[in-house]
Design goal:
This protein is of the alpha+beta class. It has 2 domains: 170 residues, Orthogonal Bundle (Helix Hairpins), CATH 1.10.287; 122 residues, Distorted Sandwich (Glucose Permease (Domain IIA)), CATH 2.70.70. It has 4 helices and 12 strands, in the order ααααββββββββββββ. Strands 1, 4, 5, 6, 7, 8, 9, 10, 11 and 12 form a 10-stranded antiparallel beta sheet that branches. A two-stranded antiparallel sheet has the order 2-3. A hairpin with a 2-residue loop joins β11 and β12. It is rod-shaped.
């Protein structure tokens, strides 16, 4: 009776251990080593490579960010310079408007001067013609021909009036000619100042604006590159964290498998010679496959083909196991176990003792499988090794 109770407790312990193992390995075995999961070494190398890429990208982002800050500083300086030039330009535009008003007044005054000069020249010309035609006497002739003092005074006064008028006409012509010349020179000077005033400032403003636009464009290009680098960094970091999670899950899984397949106490040692677990064709060996570790060998066979225990031992795992589908593991010694994946049905239960060559299940296509076959593994202390060295 005591032996029966002990056996029942052992079976319950094995069942609870199986449930714990399933819970620990669910995440990892959703991408099983037997199909397309990476090995721990490959994951560690991938993590190291991605960390190196993260370091490179962080360095690039830091350097580019420094350049962007420098460009922003230069852009701000140019913006300040451009603002000062705009203030100066506004002053010059105001001055230009003032000059434009002066130009209008100067042109109007020059037109009036030229009109008056033309009129005065006509008067002078007419006076010269009159003197020439009339042969007007000079002052000596007037004195000699005068019949009395009174007449002399009258004639002298008349002669002075004529002379004053002539001098006034000549003076007016001379003055107007000089004023016209001065106004012409002033007008030319104002026109030249007006044309050069704003053009110079606008040239400076356009030069600064062009330099600022060039820096803006360079800054935007660098910002775009930084954005792309950050996006790539985010993806690599997410992928690296995913790999780290996979590695941690794998390490937990391997630890659980090692403990679970080696803590069963003394086991009856098998013959040491494994038999072929099913009748079929070898389709995939142990080792790297599609950039991943293929942790067993594949033997293609029709669905329902019997699966045999490769050696005598005790069933430690028997049930659905993620990507392995229906999965059975038999422990043959304290170190050695064999496992069988993708079965269409499982013919044994946890804790059951089996003999070498005993039917334990049937070939199937369950889990992550591309066709009917048996995925067969040999594990030493829970770690997969090449089964061909034991068959």
């Amino acid at each position: 009776m005591h032996a029966i109770k002990t056996l029942q407790r052992n079976h319950r312990a094995i069942a609870w251990a199986t449930l714990l193992f399933l819970a620990v390995t669910t995440l990892y075995l959703a991408r099983p080593m037997g199909s397309d999961a990476k090995s721990a070494a490959e994951l560690q190398q991938d993590i190291a490579n991605k960390r190196a890429k993260e370091g490179t990208l962080n360095g690039q982002i830091s350097r580019m960010s420094t350049k962007i800050r420098g460009l922003r500083g230069r852009i701000n300086e140019l913006q300040s310079k451009q603002n000062r030039i705009e203030v100066d330009l506004n002053k010059k535009v105001h001055r230009q408007k003032t000059i434009a008003g002066d130009l209008d007044r100067s042109r109007d005054r020059l037109a009036r001067l030229r009109k008056r000069l033309a009129h005065s020249r006509k008067l002078l010309a007419a006076r010269i013609v009159t003197v020439y035609k009339s042969g007007e006497p000079d002052i000596l002739t007037v004195v000699l021909n005068s019949e009395g003092f009174s007449e002399l005074v009258q004639r002298a006064t008349y002669m002075r009036a004529i002379a004053d008028q002539d001098r006034e006409i000549i003076t007016t012509v001379t003055h107007l000619k000089g004023e016209t010349t001065k106004e012409t020179v002033r007008l030319a000077k104002l026109e030249k100042e007006a044309s050069q005033l704003v053009a110079t400032v606008r040239s400076r403003r356009n030069e600064v604006a062009g330099a600022k636009n060039s820096l803006d464009s360079r800054r935007d290009e660098l910002a775009s590159v930084v954005s792309n680098r950050k996006s790539k960094l985010s993806k690599i970091s997410a992928s690296r964290r995913h790999d780290e999670e996979d590695l941690a899950a794998m390490q937990r899984s391997n630890s659980a498998i090692q403990g679970y397949l080696t803590d069963g106490g003394p086991q009856k040692r098998g013959t040491g010679q494994l038999v072929q677990p099913t009748n079929g064709s070898f389709t995939s060996p142990f080792g790297p496959r599609w950039g991943r570790l293929h942790a067993g060998i594949d033997i293609a066979a029709p669905v329902g083909t019997p699966i045999y225990a490769a050696d005598t031992g005790s069933v430690r795992i028997a049930g659905p196991m993620g990507g392995y589908g229906n999965y059975t593991c038999i422990q043959h010694s304290s170190a050695m176990s064999t496992c069988y994946g993708h079965q269409s049905r499982i013919g044994v239960s946890v804790g059951q003792s089996v003999k070498q060559g005993q039917v334990i299940g049937a070939v199937g296509n369950t889990g992550h499988s591309t066709g009917p076959h048996l995925h067969f593994e040999v594990r030493i202390n829970g770690n997969p090794v090449d089964p061909m060295g034991y068959l």
